[in-house]
Amino acid sequence: MNKKTTTSSSTAKTKKAQTKAKATPGSEEQLLAIRDLLFGEQVSSIQASIENLNAETNKRFTRLESQLTKTSEKFNQSLKSTTTEIKELIESNHLEHVSQESIIEENLGALSSAFDQFQSQTENDLAQAHKDLDSASKAIYKSLEKEVKALNKKIEKASQELSTNKADRKTLANMLENMASNLTQSQA
Asked: Which residue has the higher pLDDT, 163 or 94?
């Protein structure tokens, strides 16, 4: 017989047995005995399958739990290692930045003092240049003033000589021409 036929016939027998059990008080025990006889092998097989599946499932859960624990431990170790490396890198970078910052501050201080020194020296040099330029311009002015006075004296002298000697116009023109050339030569 196939399984469906066995199941349907056993279901029908179970119903009959239940009906009889209701009718008789000791029939409940008989019903259990009949059921064990009819379905005992199948129930035992199913229970064995369930126990096997339960054992296999427990083994798998145990393996998964073990793998999960190992993976978790590896992850935690990796996380701790990575965290330590990051902390070391941050500390190293911080120390490097502090070192660079102090070097930059030193350089900035040196540049600031060099700039102040340069500014002071430039101001002194500029003041000295103004003094030198002023004294040179005064000297040139005095020199030109002397030249102008000397030329004025020569012109006056020549003019007096002309009026006393009554020289002709050509002589006067030559003399003025010579004086003009002397003036341009002395200015150059």
From this structure: 94
pLDDT at site 46: 84
The whole-number pLDDT of residue 1 equals 43
Averaged pLDDT for residues 102-117: 88
User: How far apart, in whole angstroms, are the C-alpha atoms of residue 20 and residue 11?
Assistant: 14
Query: Among residues 127, 125, 145, 148, which one has the least CA distance to residue 137?
Result: 145
The conformational region for residue 167 under phi > 0 = left, psi -120 to 50 = alpha, else beta, is: beta
Q: Which residues, 6+ apart, have CB-to-CB distance to 9 below 8 Å?
A: 1
Classify the C-alpha dihedral 156-160-162-163 as positive or negative. positive
Q: How far apart are CA 52 and CA 58, in angstroms?
A: 10
Yes or no: say if 24 and 13 are a contact pair by the CB < 8 Å rule: no
Contact status, residue 37 vs residue 17, Cβ threshold 8 Å? no
Is residue 7 predicted with pLDDT exceeding 80?
no
Cβ pair 31, 21 in contact under 8 A: yes
Whole-model pTM: value is 0.35
Query: Which positions ≥6 away from 13 have C-beta within 8 Å?
Result: 34, 38
- Among 50, 17, 53, 8, CA closest to 36: 17
